[in-house]
Amino acid sequence: MPRAVLNTQEQLAAEVARSTSDTVDATVRDLRVAPRCPDVDPARLKVGRAGVALVDGATRAPISAVGEALPLDKLPPTTDVSVTPLRDKDFRLLVAVEAPDGRLLVASVPVELPFAPLDSRRAEGLVLLDRSGVVAKRGTAVPPEDQPLLEIAANEPSIGSRAGQVTVVGHAPVTSTHLTRFTVVSATKAVKEGLVAEWPGLVPSTAARTSVASRPTRTTSARCAPCWSNWSRRTATAPSRSSTGPGRPC
Asked: Any idea where the domains of the chain sit in the sequence?
């Protein structure tokens, strides 16, 4: 497998993981600022969130809410901020922030993989997963025979890449402190050494260059023999010229 293909998948996975982390961190940061306003209104915070509620910190009863009904029973004890992954339908984060007066601002935030140009002809796809399985995906799914690559990636804490039977994957951890133990996987179809020309920008491998260099040189055929003989006699008395220069016989 060309190292350039592996490197490309590692870089894409790392960039998507970084973007996912930034999105989650920005959402939590915005919600942490909102409770400082005495007249906080969940409706003003609805953009980009499935649901927002202002909750009594002691009873967990909603004071005001907008959007989807939030599973407040899933909230852990909150002292500052908590982020709870929800898997009941589309993958979301239940973010709870404690206000100075003891109230809680709670929001359900959908988590989607950032947009990336994916080529279906190369079976390119992106996956967000943890040890429990895939929670979000975009593009072409990893085929069944290479599903074990996802399990390995979910347990790998660092950036890396692997080649399966028909798929190459790169993986990178999501580094947000609010979304831990999650991994982004970038996948594409495996490419044999002899087919690297199908991938623009890749440098032919050493093996490919060697195979070209080792090809036998062209021999003169019977019909070219007179031409070769005449050329040999001329060059015997003429000044030295390159064997690849003008006048070389066919």
From this structure: 3-19+113-196, 26-110
Residue at token pair 């979910």: 154
Looking at per-residue confidence, does 230 or 145 come out higher? 145
Cα–Cα distance measured from residue 249 to residue 218, given in angstroms and rounded to the nearest whole number: 12
Return all residues near 40 (Cβ < 8 A) that are at least 6 apart: 34, 54, 99, 105
Q: Are strands 51-55 and 62-67 parallel, antiparallel or unpaired?
A: antiparallel
Reported as a single tens digit per residue, the pLDDT across 196-207 is: 444 444 433 333
Decide if 194 contacts 208 (C-beta within 8 A): yes
pLDDT in tens, 30-66: 887 776 666 667 777 776 778 888 888 888 888 888 8
Closest CA to 174 of 6, 62, 17: 17
Worst-scoring range by mean pLDDT, 128-137, 217-226, 231-240?
A: 217-226
CATH class of 3-19+113-196: alpha beta
Residue 111: pLDDT band with limits 50, 70, 90? confident
Residues 152, 162 contacting (CB under 8 angstroms): yes
